[in-house]
Amino acid sequence: MARALFPWGCLRKPVYIQCDKYRKGVIDGSACSSLCEKGTLYLGKCFSAKPNSQVYSGSWGDLEGVIKCQMEEAPHYDLGTEMEPRKEAVAFNKPTKGTSVEKFKEMILSHLKAKVGDQANLSDLATLVLSIADANKDGHISLPEARSMWALLQLNEFLLALVLQDREHTPKLLGFCGDLYVVEKVPHSPLYGISLPWVIELWIPTGLRRSMDQWFTPSWPRKAKISIGLLELVEDIFHGTFGSFLMCDVSATSFGYNDRHDLKVMDARYIVPEATFQAGMRERHCDVDEDCLYGTDCQTSCDLTKHRCTPEVTRPNLAKACGALKDYILRGAPSDVREELEKQLYACIALKGSAEQMEIEHSLILNNLKTLLWKKISHTKDS
User: Fold this and answer.
1) What separation in angstroms does the CA of 40 have from each of 37, 59, 189?
2) Strand 245-247, strand 263-265: pairing
3) Strand partners of residue 86
């Protein structure tokens, strides 16, 4: 077993299971040997002690990373027919023995089509998946490699990392072993505020907590650059290269940033493919609009004639992003831009309906905000 530090409160069993399956030839991946044989992939601080949602800090040689294991347990859509059917344990039984690479690619294409919709360039995404599946880069995909990649493809967070791999807003994928995967470390999180032990949190009034969050932020030009990053993420996942995604938890804890103040997604489990979300919502029974909420930020309305949720969200990603940024970017804003910035942010927050229904207005507000912020910081060293 790899030499690993398991802090108290963290459950070790899933990692032991990964290595047991690796040694038995059930799974494989670019991180398996380092984790299970060489002892060069170290597990450090535990961020989650849930048995099916384990997250650790880690180091892999000279690289600092975050190790995520069996994350598919975390968000349940609870839509009658689940968007992501979940078993108690990943069986790693697909594809079956004897499946050709061509047949595996067909499986991938069918899965991606169900997830993100019928996109013209899904074949390109499938080709990318196959290239990553070939963990040892020998030009062949073994059955253990294929089974590991199939398990990973069931995870929203991993899928989004693939879709946005050529963009700067998601941490880079460093390697995987079964459905455990390693991504680069994001040095600064959450987006703003300070993480406190839960015992202390209980005694801090909400108003004081909000004020404290604003104390622990970078300088305003750096906050502006980080904010631009969130706006660019909204652009990337709206009618992006491989379809549209919905941001269903736009909170400070879901995002961080690096030393260059580039925004990074810390937790993408609630950034879900729009096609998958809409298909699930159509099946959800409801009596009131509140029954049609997923996460904290994806709300649709209830069709009382059918007692089913409608598929379209009531607020676009951009409105939710602006709501998260309002206090963050207005605090300390230079006097010559504050009034205009506040005006544009409130216009942004007021956006209703899906982005498709208001595409021109959506694009205009987004571009105006980015331009205003860039204009103010383009001459500074922080840009």
Assistant:
1) 8, 8, 26
2) unpaired
3) none
Question: CB-based burial of residue 57 (10 Å sphere; 0-12 exposed, 13-18 middle, 19+ buried)?
Answer: middle
Q: How far apart are CA 248 and CA 239, in angstroms?
A: 17
| Beta bridge pairs of residue 113 | none
Q: How far apart are CA 60 and CA 182, in angstroms?
A: 9
Termini Cα distance of the chain = 45
Q: State CA 199 to chain mean position distance.
A: 28
The yes-or-no verdict on residue 144 having pLDDT over 70 is: yes
Residue 28 CA to residue 57 CA, distance in Å, equals 21
CB 15 within 8 A of CB 43: yes
CA 72 → CA 152, 157, 209, distances in Å? 9, 9, 31
The stretches of 143-219 forming alpha helices (DSSP H) are: 143-152, 156-163, 198-201, 206-215
Q: Tens of pLDDT along 109-121?
A: 999 998 888 877 8
Neighbours of 96 (CB within 10 A): 10
**What pTM was computed for the model?**
0.84
SS3 for 278-342 is HHHHHCCECCCHHHHEECCCEECCEECCCCEECCCCCCCHHHHHHHHHHHHHHCCCCHHHHHHHH
Q: Residues with Cβ < 8 Å from 168, sequence gap 6 or more?
A: 229, 262
Secondary structure class of 310 (helix, strand, coil): coil
